[in-house]
Amino acid sequence: MGKLEGKVAVITGGARGQGASHARTFVKEGAKVVFTDILVEEGEALAKELGENVKFMKHDVTKADDWHRVIDETETAFGPIDILVNNAGVVVTKNFDDLSEEEYRKVIDINQVSIFLGMKTVLPSMKKTGNGSIINISSINGLRGSAGNVAYDSSKFAVRGMTKSAALEFAEYGIRVNSVHPGVIQTPMIEVEGTEKLVEKLVATIPMQRKGQSEEVSKLILYLASEDSSYSTGAEFVIDGGVTASN
């Protein structure tokens, strides 16, 4: 029997990268999964690959109405939700002088506001299970600052704070809330043309001297989604190859 047998999970940003890896892992471990994204073609292809216990939905995570639709349709398809992985995110790397207000707000809406909306909207469904797990994907940039990343860093620090507040409020309902802080992970987000030298520079600072793999992050997400982490809430789980060890 898989570690998530009988569980119902929602994963945002699930069409590719880490989100797709999490969806594959959850299905393998017995969960019924709804994953969402704005990348429709990739999302539909992944859903077809993963089979009948999976449903893909197009989803703008910054819109409350979209969140209500996702939660309602998940309950209709599979039942009350046990697990929420708030994985959707973007990065805009620009200095203060070059970053527009519009760009800043876009990052905050996708990386921060979406997590508030997700936790708020899923709460009534999770209360029905009495044993939920919410996993919010932050970053090592939510633990320390970095030049040229004011929007991203701001959003990821906020995720860390929201996680702790929610953990305190949701504990009475048997719902755990934790944040995950990846370092440099091999995903499409870091494979953008023109970033090769920056990525190489970042990898040189990693004590383990390599990028992490999505599957490695998925193993941590699985731990937090399952009963293996039944006494962990309001905590920060770092997966960065040792980058923050000296901070």
From TrEMBL:
Source species: Marinococcus luteus
GO molecular function, one term: oxidoreductase activity
Family that this chain belongs to: Belongs to the short-chain dehydrogenases/reductases (SDR) family.
Lineage start: Bacteria, Bacillati, Bacillota, Bacilli, Bacillales
InterPro entries: NAD(P)-bd_dom_sf, SDR_fam
Name listed for the protein in its UniProt record: 3alpha(Or 20beta)-hydroxysteroid dehydrogenase
Keywords: Oxidoreductase
NCBIfam families: PRK07231.1 (NF005559)
One GO-annotated biological process of the protein: bile acid metabolic process
Pfam families: adh_short_C2
Keyword Oxidoreductase: yes
Statement: the UniProt record of this protein carries the keyword Oxidoreductase: yes
Taxonomic superkingdom: Bacteria
